[in-house]
């Protein structure tokens, strides 16, 4: 999984949006060409986040991201790469790497969870 941090992207209507979208689409197309693309999703801004924690049986719900967070997660790509080298190569090709940070992390396979229907969350 490529986790995209600290990458502010232009919104539709911003003059920079078409070029940014073209770069992202070119990256996704390269991942598809290699047969690695599984999914990719941008996230809405961190101001839309709600944080949930449970302490001593009590649920705490807070608007916004976790208070101690210094970086914000802007989106993800799930790729099915041959190996770590290909994942790192694709992470470097990701256009958001030029202004933010791309964390590359394997997805843990968990028996009995891997084939459950998605909740859409």
From TrEMBL:
Family from the record: Belongs to the YciI family.
Signal peptide, first to last residue: none
Name assigned to this protein: YCII-related domain-containing protein
Ranges of residues in domain YCII-related: 18-107
Matches recorded under SUPFAM superfamilies: Dimeric alpha+beta barrel (SSF54909)
Domain of life: Bacteria
Species of provenance: Amycolatopsis decaplanina DSM 44594
Pfam family, one: YCII
């Amino acid at each position: 999984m490529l986790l995209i941090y600290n990458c502010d992207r232009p919104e539709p209507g911003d003059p920079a949006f078409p070029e940014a979208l073209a770069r992202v689409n070119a990256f996704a197309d390269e991942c598809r060409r290699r047969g690695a693309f599984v999914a990719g999703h941008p996230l809405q801004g961190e101001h839309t986040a709600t944080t949930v924690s449970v302490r001593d049986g009590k649920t705490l719900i807070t608007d916004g991201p976790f208070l101690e967070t210094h970086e914000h997660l802007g989106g993800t790509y799930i790729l099915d790469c041959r190996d770590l080298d290909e994942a790192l190569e694709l992470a470097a090709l990701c256009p958001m790497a030029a202004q933010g940070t791309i964390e590359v992390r394997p997805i843990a396979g968990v028996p009995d969870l891997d084939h459950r229907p998605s909740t859409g969350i």
